[in-house]
């Protein structure tokens, strides 16, 4: 990774995969509360563990006695993931991989992670959210290339009306397309390799399933 990369371990679902291992390679690691449960399976030793620790057992704390912990009260204004992100940015992060940020029992948290990712991208950070089997990328005005396995599924979820959306490198390409807010037109496309997205205005999330070849 050419940019200073940090992995933020989150409390959602996470499956170790080869793609996930590639995203983690060479990155520094910060755990957000219950996200620490993924560290052993991924072979990671975070440099910092933050949060209110309401999702962490004493056994987990005892298992990692040498990891620096930064506790916060449960009554706080930010999520544990946002606190971990602030710590990463303060340490020079330019690329953020949120591992375990998708799925899980809390749909509100998972949706907030998607919105927060877009905000961070607007601030100039390179952001990826992943469960190992599913990946999410913020899509803002400009051009974005995402390298996906041939035949894998992806969708574009507009957070508002999208103007000038072009998609190449996919089974169903688009050129200068106007996507109304709430439209399902860009759900379930199929990658032919690296997919290029160009957008004139609006904000969206590209949700990809690299191991799902059901559309092939």
UniProtKB/TrEMBL annotation:
<dbReference type="GO" id="GO:0016301">
    <property type="term" value="F:kinase activity"/>
</dbReference>
<protein>
    <recommendedName>
        <fullName>Thiamine diphosphokinase</fullName>
        <ecNumber>2.7.6.2</ecNumber>
    </recommendedName>
</protein>
<dbReference type="InterPro" id="IPR053149">
    <property type="entry name" value="TPK"/>
</dbReference>
<dbReference type="Pfam" id="PF04265">
    <property type="entry name" value="TPK_B1_binding"/>
</dbReference>
<dbReference type="Pfam" id="PF04263">
    <property type="entry name" value="TPK_catalytic"/>
</dbReference>
<dbReference type="GO" id="GO:0009229">
    <property type="term" value="P:thiamine diphosphate biosynthetic process"/>
</dbReference>
<keyword id="KW-0067">ATP-binding</keyword>
<dbReference type="GO" id="GO:0006772">
    <property type="term" value="P:thiamine metabolic process"/>
</dbReference>
<dbReference type="InterPro" id="IPR006282">
    <property type="entry name" value="Thi_PPkinase"/>
</dbReference>
<keyword id="KW-0418">Kinase</keyword>
<keyword id="KW-0547">Nucleotide-binding</keyword>
<dbReference type="GO" id="GO:0005524">
    <property type="term" value="F:ATP binding"/>
</dbReference>
<feature type="domain" description="Thiamin pyrophosphokinase thiamin-binding">
    <location>
        <begin position="142"/>
        <end position="205"/>
    </location>
</feature>
<dbReference type="InterPro" id="IPR007373">
    <property type="entry name" value="Thiamin_PyroPKinase_B1-bd"/>
</dbReference>
<dbReference type="GO" id="GO:0030975">
    <property type="term" value="F:thiamine binding"/>
</dbReference>
<dbReference type="InterPro" id="IPR036759">
    <property type="entry name" value="TPK_catalytic_sf"/>
</dbReference>
<keyword id="KW-0808">Transferase</keyword>
<dbReference type="InterPro" id="IPR007371">
    <property type="entry name" value="TPK_catalytic"/>
</dbReference>
<dbReference type="GO" id="GO:0004788">
    <property type="term" value="F:thiamine diphosphokinase activity"/>
</dbReference>
């Amino acid at each position: 990774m050419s940019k200073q990369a940090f992995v933020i371990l989150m409390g959602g679902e996470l499956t170790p995969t080869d793609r996930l291992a590639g995203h983690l390679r060479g990155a520094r690691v910060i755990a957000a509360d219950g996200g620490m449960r993924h560290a052993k399976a991924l072979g990671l030793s975070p440099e910092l563990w933050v949060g209110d620790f309401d999702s962490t057992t004493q056994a987990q704390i005892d298992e990692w006695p040498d990891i620096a912990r930064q506790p916060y009260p449960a009554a706080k204004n930010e999520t544990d993931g946002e606190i971990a992100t602030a710590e990463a940015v303060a340490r020079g992060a330019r690329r953020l991989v949120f591992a375990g940020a998708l799925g899980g029992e809390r749909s509100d948290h998972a949706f907030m992670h998607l919105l927060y990712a877009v905000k961070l991208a607007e601030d100039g950070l390179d952001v990826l959210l992943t469960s190992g089997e599913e990946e999410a990328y913020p899509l803002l005005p400009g051009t974005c290339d995402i390298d996906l396995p041939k035949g894998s599924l992806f969708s574009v979820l507009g957070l508002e009306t999208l103007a000038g959306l072009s998609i190449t490198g996919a089974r169903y390409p688009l050129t200068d397309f106007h996507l109304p807010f709430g439209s399902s037109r860009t759900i379930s496309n199929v990658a032919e390799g690296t997919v290029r997205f160009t957008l004139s205005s609006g904000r969206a999330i590209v949700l990809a399933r690299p191991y799902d070849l059901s559309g092939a």
